[in-house]
Write a structure and sequence with these properties.
385 residues; mainly beta; AttH-like fold; 2 domains; nine-stranded antiparallel sheet; 23 strands; globular
Length: 385
């Protein structure tokens, strides 16, 4: 087990405080009964579905015609981890012009299934079945439907055993594995006006945890970029409560079909040009992110800019009755952004330098209080515009 903390924003170091515990040692892999490479069972149901547990499987795709699709299977809505099993399906289609159409469904517990030996999910009439290499999705919402086939190109990845623990007793954790860091996707999207055959690229990851994530993180950034043979994934979270001011960072870099960085020894995400959202007043987000990572002789710098909002969610307002949301907002007010952004990546691998450009994706998940992001949070996120 290795400790991970940080003395300040924008990077990680071997800080003295002990609140984030990584699992990237042989001993921790043995403790979790895992080997160095992912197995199909790691994309199956990882824990119980009762109170205190939450788990979700995320798929997204970008198609050659400029359209996009995001599908999420959840054992319960994100902010209802303390509740019982409440299976939820979330679907988002985005047209080439940026117009977004969203759909969702919540089914009875008896209409949910999840296998333990591989990804074998069912929520009502929708399903996702796969074995790390290939996934078949059959999505049936009230107004959006899809039949999609994902095929892995970049090998499956996880940081260590795919878990980060939040206590020395190794009881509270968040899990993250990425069966498809980058792959191909083809199939059919069924829009309200008719069906369209699509082909493009895609991504799939899987998360699970047994403690309220809003008590662990003030906010996090997650993102991914791909261009040519370059694929990079990043996560950067700012701790909450007794972890206040500490950061957790995870990073992966692949070239073609080979992972060249599994764990970064020096890593940080620096947000800048913080601006206010004109639609969600009082909420702020960065218009630029700079990701820097180093592992041995490999160095990476990725700049993301010119973000376009693909999704903005008031997660409390969307999940709770108005009267309950009003009571809870002084204490917790989770909100979410997902952006498409231009990126430029400068990478030096084994003495060979290259630059890649394209469109990447990043998200901001924040657990703001009633004041939303005030001066302290704005300072933590980065420089003001």
């Amino acid at each position: 087990m290795r400790e991970r903390g940080d003395a300040g924003a924008g990077g990680t170091s071997g800080a003295a405080r002990r609140h984030f515990f990584l699992t990237d040692t042989p001993e921790m892999l043995a403790r979790e009964s895992l080997g160095p490479e992912m197995e199909s069972r790691e994309d199956g149901l990882r824990q119980g579905t009762g109170k205190g547990n939450i788990e979700w499987w995320y798929f997204d795709a970008k198609f050659d015609d400029g359209s996009k699709a995001v599908v999420v299977f959840l054992t319960k809505p994100m902010i209802e981890g303390s509740g019982p099993l409440k299976p939820k399906l979330e679907i988002t289609f985005t047209r080439p012009n940026g117009e977004e159409i969203r759909d969702w469904a919540i089914c009875a517990p008896e209409d949910f299934r999840a296998g333990a030996e591989r990804c074998d999910l069912g929520i009502g009439e929708s399903s996702a079945v796969g074995d790390l290499e290939t996934y078949e999705l059959r999505i049936r919402g009230s107004k959006l439907k899809a039949d999609l086939r994902f095929h892995r190109i970049v090998p499956s990845w996880r940081s260590g055993a795919g878990k980060v623990y939040f206590d020395e007793g190794l009881k509270d954790y968040l899990g993250w594995v990425v069966p498809i860091p980058h792959g191909s996707v083809e199939g059919t999207l069924y829009w309200p006006e008719g069906e369209r055959r699509v082909a493009g690229s895609g991504y799939h990851d899987h998360n699970w945890g047994n403690c309220p994530i809003e008590k662990v993180f003030d906010y996090w950034f997650w993102g991914r970029v791909h261009s040519g043979g370059l694929t990079a994934l990043f996560f950067d979270g700012l701790g909450a409560g007794r972890r206040k001011g500490e950061r957790l960072g995870l990073f992966m870099l692949a070239k073609d079909d080979r992972i060249v960085v599994r764990e970064a020894s020096d890593y940080g995400v620096a947000p800048s040009r913080i601006v206010a959202d004109e639609v969600r007043h009082g909420r702020n987000f960065p218009r630029e992110l700079t990701v820097r990572a180093r592992s041995g002789a490999t160095q990476v710098e990725i700049g993301l800019s010119e973000p376009r909002i693909m999704e903005r969610d008031d997660m409390l307002g969307g999940a709770a009755p108005l009267w309950l949301a009003a009571l809870l907002r002084p204490f917790v007010n989770p909100w979410y952004y997902r952006f498409a952004a231009r990126f430029e990546a400068r990478v030096s691998v084994e003495g060979s330098a290259e630059t890649a450009r394209g469109e990447g994706v990043y998200e901001l998940m924040a657990f703001g209080k009633a004041s939303e992001l005030g001066p302290a949070e704005r300072k933590a996120l980065g420089r003001d515009a």
